[in-house]
Amino acid sequence: MLWACVALALTAVPLQAADNQLTPDQKIVHVLDRLGFGPRPGDVERVKKMRLENYLQQQLHPERIDDSVVEKKLAAFNALSMSASNLMESFHEDQRMAAERKKAQAESEKQKDVKSGSELADANRRASNVQKLMDDKPGEHLSRIAVAQLQDAKIIRAVESNRQLYEVLADFWSNHFNVDVRKGPCQVLKVVDEREVIRPNVFGKFRDLLEASAKSPAMLFYLDNAQNSAPREPGPGEERLRSRVREQVPGTAPDPVNAGKPRVVGGINENYAREIMELHTLGVDGGYTQKDVQEVARCFTGWGINLRTGGFEFHPRRHDDGAKTVLGHILPPGGGAKDVEWVLDILARHPSTAKFIATKLCQRLVADDPPAALVERVAGVFRATDGDLRKVVEAIIYSPEFYFPATYRAKIKSPFEYAVSAVRAAGGMMTPEGSAGPPLTARLAVETGATFGRGMDRIAGARRKTLNLSIIELGQALFAYQAPTGYPEDSRKWVNAGALISRMNFSLALAEGKFSDVSLPTDDLLRGVDIDKPDLVLNRLDEVLLQGRMSDATRATLEKQTFGPYDSATSTVNVPQLVALMLGSPEFQRH
């Protein structure tokens, strides 16, 4: 019964405010929901006291907000501050160790077939050495836990940071310039991408953000531009290296048919060129052609990375230095690395980019189908300010459309938004070190493994788990979406029966204190309300968790589910169950 009610409510048209306008309190709740990850207990009163206008200006200038408490908590995650070089060193070491462990397993199998004493002694010695590798404890090497550190830091910031709009936009832009951490060294390079590409440019110029992403080793590896090279004859050094490889590796001898002919290596890879236009700037209907994709790919030849240091590098010998034409603009020959600078200028200032970025931001902050007039005005601000992202966001949140009744509770929370907002609504705090269970590094290793799809059966049956693991189970492993599109901004994509059941199970686990890294002050939720007075309990939780937004239909369902044969004078409330049901209600799942 309850599942059906929730499903119907989520797919139905959201309730609108009376008199066709939002009340002052509803505006505050709307701002806390859309420009943050939902209100914490007391937030509505705090914003009311400081005035909504002052709160908005504060959020638009996060540098004015003290967030030292959160940053201190993040100090437990050492990967976040490590250099790209050190992160890559850890990645390569783990790759080597993985190969050694695989070899160790093969050696163990060989022992079964050993006959002679000397062979047995040698085999035992080798097995003893490699067993040390196999016994290596999870989490000792940084690249195994860097992904989980990055994910947990994102969750902590979303739950506890006072810079809520900044965190929402960091999430938006990280998803817009999506990188899947499950692809090779992206698992450590994304740490640098988030720290040096996304977060510093949230309120800067779009052109700067675009260039930072174009030079991001994580992005260049993820979308294969590190392989993008003009076809060329290898130099003497490369030929000597290839000759040594051919001598040592069977099956790599020169092709006798082409013996004596000039060798050609490299080749154009169009992946990044296509995605920078389709997904990062112009949009799929932005007016570019396949020829433009080919020309942009030529501009990006030689634009790569140093796999040893994890840094960006431009390789002139791999660059196509001929003349090119991009979206009608002629780029002269001999441009070298400037080819990309010209391309980024063209893309960042193209009218289609203004419209595409305006549409996506309005979709995130206003509605799944944003009003066309609003999109056009915001695109105009983008063009007029040369892509000033602070001005663009300001235009959205000060627009009349942002406060239209039709936008109020019109979007469905993603799994990440849902989980984080539930912890915030209940007044929860994150405890990175955990209150119980394995040490932090071992726990983080499990979270990274789950992101890569390992150990999910065992995790599903665990009595206690972390918030990060639950978000993975809900279907939104952070920084781990395979397609370059990123997770959908259209919130309707998150509605299905299985997801609703998973969310209800999540809310019950949260209410019962089953998350090892969440501290939940359940007693504070009632503030002395007698649990033998169901009406008062229900009213209090409606005020704290739903800001008084409970519908008559939800109230009737909760009374029936929680109290059984309802008697307001004698029924005793099962508080954790009621909290779980309220966090699973349609009123809470919308924002």
Task: Identify the notable features of this structure and list them briefly.
single chain; 591 residues; mainly alpha; 3 domains; two-stranded antiparallel sheet; two-stranded antiparallel ribbon; 29 helices; globular
Helix/strand layout:
Elements: H1 2-11, H2 24-34, H3 43-50, H4 52-60, H5 68-73, H6 84-110, H7 117-134, H8 142-160, H9 164-176, H10 186-198, H11 206-214, H12 217-222, E1 229-232, H13 236-248, E2 265-267, H14 271-280, H15 290-299, E3 303-306, E4 311-314, E5 324-326, E6 329-331, H16 338-348, H17 351-365, H18 372-384, H19 389-397, H20 415-425, E7 429-430, H21 440-451, H22 456-460, H23 467-473, H24 497-511, E8 518-519, H25 522-526, H26 534-546, H27 552-563, H28 575-583, H29 586-589
Antiparallel strand pairs: 1-2, 3-4, 5-6, 7-8
